[in-house]
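<tokenise_the_fold>
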Amino acid sequence: MAHERRLAALAWAWLAVVVSTTARLSSARFIVEKNSVTVLSPRSLRGHHKAAIANYGVPEYGGTLTGVVLYPSSDSDPKLATGCVPFGDNKKKFRSPSGRPVVLLVDRGGCYFALKTWHAQLAGAAAVLVADAADEPLLTMDSPEDETPDMAAFLANITIPSALVTKRFGDALRSAASAAANSDEVMVRLDWRESMPHPDERVEYELWTNSNDECGARCEEQAAFVRAFRGHAQLLEKGGYVAFTPHYITWFCPEPFLGTPQCAAQCVNRGRYCAPDPEGDLGAGYDGKDVVVENLRQLCVHRAANATGRPWVWWDYVDDYHRRCSMKEDKYSKTCAEGVVRSLGLPMEMIEKCMGDPEADAENEVLKNEQIVQVGHGTRGDVTILPTLVINNVQYRGKLESTAVLKAICAGFKESTEPHVCLTPGMETDECLDNNGGCWRDEKTNITACKDTYRGRICECPVVDGIQYQGDGYTDCKAVGPARCAMDNGGCWMETRHGKTFSACSGSDLSGCKCPPGFKGNGFHCQDVDECSEKLACSCPHCSCKNNWGGFDCKCSGGLMYIKSEDACIAKNMSALGWLVTALVVSCLAGAGVAGYVFYKYRLRRYMDSEIMAIMAQYMPLDNQHESQPLTTQETQQA
């Protein structure tokens, strides 16, 4: 037994060397993720401040929380100010006079950060701000590394957000909150909307995990998360909304340790890729190299699944492997893994080729890449603990729980591009249900410019059945385009009376409303024009005008007929003399036409005959041509 303890001690000492060496070589970067705290009142404290998001609880990614700052009195027990003891029967104190949510301010020190939040949550607080005790840059409040069963119980049940604020800001809040009984409430807005980048319609996220299931509460947390989140993850991937990549932390064995039993038991590829012993005991159970090999297999499972167009199958494999091939049941093996691979229809040959030879003294391309991407870049720090979730290249802060993680992923979508799963009642509040979100709405058709998003509502003129609306979205939206009249008549005037319908919307116009002929107005309201009384028509002699809706009737006296285009009356019937005169005129016109045609044909024939004779004379001279030609000058002189 003593020998095993020595081995374990040696193993952990070696691991510390590996971690420290890796940290130095990679120039470790630790990024503190922040949210915004805006003081709304009192006026003297108004302003914007940064706070460091805690790595436990549930940050409201994509949302805000407005509440009243309360500071627990420390008269009876100084530990109340730090939140290190339960607040007991003081729940009544943690209710603001205005009824708004309580943001409890506590001092740093005296106990774990997470314990302060747990006590505040039990006392009815909606969020916790921890005031730093020293003037220093903000840091991330983390959960205890060595979790006891009691700690694990309350850590898993923390559901409110927490953040660390600077000493200067904390002192100002404490003074204002302590004096709030005699003045205005200290009201703040905690804002996480910009804590998660949301550049476009696709979220990219990665989970740094481990196939080891003997590492206590952390391993159980990872397995429970994969099991609970698998359905959401696969739904998002199948819809093309996200790109997911699993990762596994590996270390390398320092050169001085390459020939040691520790390195041989915990590393593959001659010390290049290592993992800690699962049980922390080199003399029992599985070795670290067994974990490295299974981690490598799970990476290759994802690559093979991705190559076959089913990247979401990785979630099935990991969950099935944990259930069927656990270390506790002594089934953590290649044989069990291959059974899971076959059951999921994955290509075994592709996976084996991807894994290569773990015993070779050579680099493994897959594991080498994991060591490279483990180092932080851009807005993401180094990955040093498990599990770690990274969303849009920002490390997620909070507990690894299905709903909390889904909310964080939903906050990573650009507004109005979220999948339906992000807009369900359990995920967010539909602000369009309350007074239409303050946006424009057509009461007749119930078409609205309010669009619910995960981050809140936006007022944006919609597209309905291919018809685009344009406007500011708040007070005005109008249909535009060729088909606009099909949608509530383009917002224009339209009325039907006595079976006749008139409209101010014209399909030939892309926008605007114009009253039709017979009506006047602005196109949104039109009224009939009285052409008769305004002398706009039927004003000729012998005309009798009667106005009707959308037009008029005009009649002529004396049996005359009204011609609307000329606004004139003409006779309907003609006398016998009229018919005779008409016949004579028609006969004259016909005779002139025939004579003209005959003359035209005669002249055309004479012209054509002369032209033909001239052409023939040039190319086929006639016999009498010489006789008919005049004498030249020389011939005249000779004669």
